[in-house]
Amino acid sequence: MNIKKYDAVIAGYICVDMLPGFSKNDNFKNVADLFIPGKLIEIEGMDFVLGGLVPNTGLAMKKLGKKVFLNGLTGDDFIGTIAIASLNKYGAAEGIQMTKASGTAFSIVLAPKEIDRIFLESPGCNRFFDLTHIDFDAVANSRLFHFGYPPLLKQFYLNNGQQLSEMYAKVKEMGIVTSLDFSLPDPDSESGKVNWPEIMKRTLPSVDIFVPSIEELLQTMMPEKYAEIDAMPGSDDFVDKVPVETVREVGKKMIDAGVKILLIKMGHRGAYLITGDISDINRTKAFTLAHKSWDHREIWCNAYAADHSKIVNASGAGDTAVAAFLTAILDGEPAENAVKYAGMAGRDNLYCQNIYDDLSNWNQLTVNINKEQNDLIFLNHE
Q1: How do the residues of the chain divide into helix, strand and coil, expressed in percent and rounded to 5?
Q2: How confident is the model at residue 22 (pLDDT cuts 50, 70, 90)?
Q3: Distance from C-alpha of 332 to C-alpha of 329, rounded to nearest angstrom
Q4: Percent of the chain residues topping a pLDDT of 90
Q5: Residue 284: count of CB within 10 angstroms of its CB
Q6: Quick check: is 118 in a domain?
Q7: Which residues constitute the domain of residue 325?
Q8: CA distance 88 to 86
Q9: What is the pLDDT of residue 1?
Q10: Calpha distance 106→9 (Å, rounded)
Q11: Among residues 70, 89, 239, 370, which is most buried (max CB within 10 A)?
Q12: Which pLDDT tens digit goes with each residue over 65-87?
């Protein structure tokens, strides 16, 4: 195996999350309970934590024992100083650049107990983050390049996603395994009106590992199917409405588009893994995935049960699940183990106020997986 300076370069969106401290005694049943004109909701302080894919996935992978290079952009402002100081605390600010063009991105995360999160997002200087900010020297010295979230990175969806497809083609030509995560486009925003199916058609042939949520995947790749499911009566939670057959259908479309490993995050329903031929990944000499375990697999992992009394919030759970999944792949774990690590890390994230400080390390995740039974469902009966 080739020895590289970094296990992974984690590039793309970075922000500071502001989390109002909702009381555990609040009895919100749905989102409508929050947005009532004239209503006053008393909170228990406000936490400022690093957010976005770069800190969430990057610092989680660092906690799980990997050498990571974080590659993002902050503004030259007060929120930016918070972000840089936090990253310096963990020795992870080396690849973070600063700009005067715009302020640091931030989000206000409304995450009351047992209600899916609502993000009030200001992308800030991420609108200016482009190919010139990618540290290709660091990428060349890594085993894996992981990037996200294109719908919040304007330069990567402009001109029919030209920079996105160019970047992945370049990294692929360098012989580095590529990975992509997504975010949900705001349908009323500029990114919500671009032709994502066309952008992804051009990009996915250069993407080895794709790790979107089911809602992100359907909205960007099968918008008509997304609208059909969203309009269905029943649960307010989109994830609950999606038939297993639809998950499998869109999964196969992604493999046919060139993705080698697809993990679809399904929230409280767990995660769905489908793979193709992983020969290209092993060909880089930086990975040693067993073909018997990884080739042409289709596995559903139900979510691990959560102790609701310990839940802090769900912010970053998907990013943390991805961090564990990618760590397992870097370690050459079997597919069955990788999807379990993703599920366990995503569940344990619910108990974390700060991912890097509070998340279980790799050994503890392993202990938790061995202790908590979670039978996998093998959909292709292999």
Answers
A1: 45, 20, 40
A2: confident
A3: 5
A4: 73
A5: 17
A6: no
A7: 6-11+52-72+127-378
A8: 5
A9: 56
A10: 22
A11: 70
A12: 999 999 999 999 999 999 999 99
Q: Which single residue is written with the structure tokens 């936490």?
A: 47
Q: How far apart are the first and last CA of the chain?
A: 29
Taken in order 69, 73, 79, 81, the sign of the CA dihedral is positive
Domain presence at residue 230:
yes
Number of domains composing the chain:
1
Confidence of residue 114 (pLDDT cuts 50, 70, 90): low
Residue 179's H or E segment, with its range, is: strand 177-180
**How far apart (Å, rounded) are the C-alpha atoms in residues 109 and 287?**
37
DSSP-assigned letters across all residues of 204-215: GGG-SEE--BHH
Supply the CATH number for residue 292's domain: 3.40.1190.20
Q: Which residue has the tokens 């409405």?
A: 241
The rounded percent of the chain whose pLDDT value lies above 70 is: 96
C-alpha 372/C-alpha 382 separation (Å) is 23
pLDDT tens per residue across span 234-288: 888 899 999 999 999 999 999 999 999 999 999 999 999 999 999 999 998 889 9
What is the 3-class SS of the chain, one letter each residue?
CCCCCEEEEEEECCEEEEEECCCCCCCCCCHHHCCCCCCCCCCCCEEEEEECHHHHHHHHHHHCCCCEEEEEEEECCHHHHHHHHHHHHCCCCCCEEEECCCCCCEEEEECCCCCCCEEEEECHHHHHCCHHHCCHHHHHCEEEEEEECHHHCHHHCHHHHHHHHHHHHHHHHCCCEEEECCCCCCCCCCHHHCCHHHHHHHHHHHCCEECCEHHHHHHHHCHHHHHHHHCCCCCCCHHHHCCHHHHHHHHHHHHHCCCCEEEEECHHHCEEEEECCCHHHHCCCCCCCCHHHHCCCEEEECCCCCCHHHCCCCCCHHHHHHHHHHHHHHCCCCHHHHHHHHHHHHHHHCCCCCHHHHCCCHHHHHHHHHHCCCCCEECCCC
**Residue 257 included in any domain:** yes
pTM exceeds cut of 0.85: yes
